[in-house]
């Protein structure tokens, strides 16, 4: 019977909430022992794990009452005290457990007492009314809390009247109390909409980083295949065609013309293939790394470019490639459009962010609405949730700052 499930739920909630109340001073004692004797370093993480299991038991009961599906939360500690404390302090689930503890005490005890009172209004006349004569005359049985029972007629009619009034009250109040408490339990242990959004953003960020890494690895594989396979075959074909042209007599006529066109077409295809390979994943980046690749970009520029790299450490390959293309595009723009006499490129690492600063002393006045190369930089940066800031007043100088997340 559904009402019985709700009655049983509330009757268990009352002693369980009182037991939860005991946990708070125990946890406080564990925290104090951390500074006094160090015992809390071992005890507190295990107390929090025990609280997690206790909260999960309540959470399963609440979900069962409401008929909703929930996912199990992990209740195991990692190995090592440092890892255990990091888990306890960094995991938002433990903060939700503490939040639930306070809420369970604040709502469970009143809900349990209210349910016990309402149920008592039904049980009391059924059990005690027939035994009214056992009560002393100076302290008789009282129904409706205040009306004394002094005879069988009063016991029967007053008991029947109290049951008739208490049963509908129980039928109405107990399910609402049980469901209200169950919903409060689940809401305290479930992440808020803002927390769900933050967790989802974190998951998407992590999955996107994996996709970018996989995409980068695939581009490198294709670049190697094209460079070592297709391009090598084209070179061999071009060489054979060149040898064939040299071997033909000058009066070969149409055959000589066809060989010449085939040879020139092969060389054009090789040039286009090299350009495709360079734009997919620059071979120089794979061969010389980011410092060597940026130095090469600066050496090929039409203006003097000073490159400074400051404590970059390990940078994911996808971010390295994006950094190379951003710097190459910026230096190309400076050479073609700025009229600058010199430029500087500086890459620094700030925690988990790679900062690229590109400045020049040119005429400035960048107008992104006209389709400048800055739009390409912004699109490439947006793939990493990066930030691009452009400061380019008319008359210069121009400064472009790009921030790329590079946590590996």
From TrEMBL:
EC number: 2.7.13.3
Keyword Kinase recorded: yes
GO cellular component: membrane
Putative sensor domain location: 9-183
Gene3D superfamilies: 1.20.5.1930, Histidine kinase-like ATPase, C-terminal domain
Positions of the Histidine kinase/HSP90-like ATPase domain: 324-406
Keyword vocabulary terms for this entry: ATP-binding, Kinase, Membrane, Nucleotide-binding, Phosphoprotein, Transferase, Transmembrane, Transmembrane helix, Two-component regulatory system
Pfam families reported in the protein's UniProt record: HATPase_c (PF02518), HisKA_3 (PF07730), Sensor (PF13796)
Domain of life, source organism: Bacteria
GO molecular function: ATP binding; phosphorelay sensor kinase activity; protein dimerization activity
Reactions listed under catalytic activity: ATP + protein L-histidine = ADP + protein N-phospho-L-histidine
First-level EC class: transferase
Protein's name according to its UniProt entry: histidine kinase
Protein's organism: Streptosporangium canum
Higher taxonomy: Bacteria, Bacillati, Actinomycetota, Actinomycetes, Streptosporangiales
């Amino acid at each position: 019977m559904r009402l019985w499930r709700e009655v049983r739920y509330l009757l268990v909630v009352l002693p369980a909430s009182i037991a939860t109340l005991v946990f708070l001073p125990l946890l406080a004692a564990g925290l104090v022992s951390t500074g006094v004797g160090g015992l809390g370093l071992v005890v507190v993480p295990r107390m929090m794990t025990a609280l997690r299991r206790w909260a999960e038991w309540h959470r399963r009961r609440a979900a069962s009452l409401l008929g909703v599906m929930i996912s199990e939360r992990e209740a195991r500690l990692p190995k090592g005290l440092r890892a255990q404390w990091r888990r306890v302090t960094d995991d938002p689930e433990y903060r939700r457990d503490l939040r639930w503890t306070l809420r369970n005490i604040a709502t469970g005890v009143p809900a349990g007492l209210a349910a016990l009172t309402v149920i008592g209004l039904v049980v009391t006349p059924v059990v005690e009314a027939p035994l009214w004569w056992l009560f002393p005359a100076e302290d008789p049985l009282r129904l409706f809390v205040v009306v004394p029972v002094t005879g069988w007629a009063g016991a029967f009619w007053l008991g029947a009247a109290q049951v008739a009034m208490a049963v509908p009250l129980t039928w109405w109040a107990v399910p609402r109390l049980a469901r209200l408490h169950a919903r409060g339990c689940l809401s305290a242990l479930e992440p808020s909409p803002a927390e769900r959004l933050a967790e989802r953003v974190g998951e998407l960020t992590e999955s996107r980083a994996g996709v970018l890494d996989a995409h980068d690895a695939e581009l490198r594989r294709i670049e190697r295949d094209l460079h070592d396979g297709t391009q090598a075959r084209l070179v061999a074909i071009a060489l054979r065609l060149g040898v064939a042209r040299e071997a033909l007599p000058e009066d070969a006529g149409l055959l000589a013309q066809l060989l010449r066109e085939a040879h020139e077409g092969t060389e054009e295809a090789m040039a286009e293939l090299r350009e495709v390979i360079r734009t997919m994943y620059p071979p120089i980046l794979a061969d010389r790394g980011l410092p060597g690749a940026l130095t090469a970009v600066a050496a090929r520029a039409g203006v003097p470019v000073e490159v400074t790299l400051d404590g970059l450490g390990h940078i994911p390959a996808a971010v390295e490639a994006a950094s190379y293309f951003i710097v190459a595009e910026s230096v190309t723009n400076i050479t073609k459009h700025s009229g600058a006499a010199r430029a500087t490129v500086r890459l620094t690492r700030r925690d988990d962010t790679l900062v690229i600063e590109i400045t020049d002393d040119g005429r400035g006045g960048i107008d992104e609405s006209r389709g400048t190369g800055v739009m390409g930089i912004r699109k490439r940066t947006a793939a990493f949730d990066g930030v691009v800031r452009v400061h380019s007043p008319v008359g210069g100088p121009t400064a472009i700052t790009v921030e790329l997340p590079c946590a590996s």
